[in-house]
Amino acid sequence: MVERVLLASPRGYCAGVERAVDTVERALDHYGAPVYVRKQIVHNIHVVRDLEARGAIFVEDENEVPTGAVVVYSAHGVAPAVQENSRRLGHDVIDATCPLVTKVHVQARRYAAAGHTVVLIGHAGHEEVVGTMGEAPEATVLVQDVAEAEALDLPADASLRYITQTTLSVDETADIIAVLRRRFPQIVGPKKEDICYATSNRQWAVKEMLQEIELLLVIGSRNSSNSNRLVDVARAGGVPSYLIDDETEIDEGWLEGVRTVGVTSGASAPERLVTRVCDWFRERGVTRVEAFRMVDEDVTFRLPVELRRELELAEARA
């Protein structure tokens, strides 16, 4: 029987997600519904449903957005071709790309412009990777794991630079980089790693609590890369772990023989979902719901410049 629930810290919303969700909410307040959003603003189904209820319309492709309409780009970023399509269609664009993703895009462009081959470490098909590869498709090679790094077929003396998706496993990425450095000693990476602070911090927090728990529940949606990596971190440490969207997905069979459960949430999961999971355990007699080593994050990002400008003009007119 579960006796204690430990809450990882930090967990939940990162600064980029906070900014992206706030962007859509403020755009709806300012422009009124509908406001179109290309792809899911962040990878969490609860966030998407809440914004839909307020009048946001999520589309898979910018070509689905009516001419002249307001469209918000998701936190994961877009390729230059998307921006060009929006210009052609006369969209009023608000770019909510996380600044840390934008940094990777800038690196990709600079490396390619300098004549380097860019090795992008990431997951094929993930929106962030699609956008980053779109910056320099002819110069970029995708590597997803150690096996692909070992098999990478490039000239031994090629001028190489590597960049990474921001939401990867810190440990797995280090293993891939180690292979690339062994095979291509001349390869150079960014001065500061691309994996974002929030992804690293949440993985670190899970590792710290593994000795205290027998099971980890990760609150996050299936398409959330950073949430899936938290599950991977726990399992790599020998602790069973499951990804859940909310408390309705908890299988009581997982809890048999378990006395201490850890709970964390991905960077796109709102804290209210953690509260709901805690309440689920309380309803089943668990009285000890405790924070594990409280750690605060103080990173914040300003709203996108397009929206800031518009809101400032509106304030000046008022």
For the secondary structure, the number of strands is 12
CATH architecture call of the largest domain: 3-Layer(aba) Sandwich
**Fraction of residues in H or I helices:** 40-55%
Measured by DSSP, the beta-strand proportion falls in 15-25%
Shape annotation? flat
Radius of gyration, CA atoms, in whole angstroms: 21 Å
Average residue-wise pLDDT: 97
Order of helices and strands: EHEHEEHEHEHEHEHHEHEEHEH
Structural class: alpha/beta
Strand order within the widest beta sheet? 10-9-11-1-12
The CATH fourth-level homologous superfamily of the largest domain? 4-hydroxy-3-methylbut-2-enyl diphosphate reductase, catalytic domain
Count of helical stretches: 11
Sheet having the most strands: 5 strands, parallel
The CATH topology of the largest domain is what? Cobalt-precorrin-4 Transmethylase, domain 1
Query: Regarding CATH, which class of the largest domain?
Result: Alpha Beta
Indicate the low-confidence ranges by residue numbers. Answer: none
- How far apart the termini lie comes to 59 Å
Oligomer: single chain
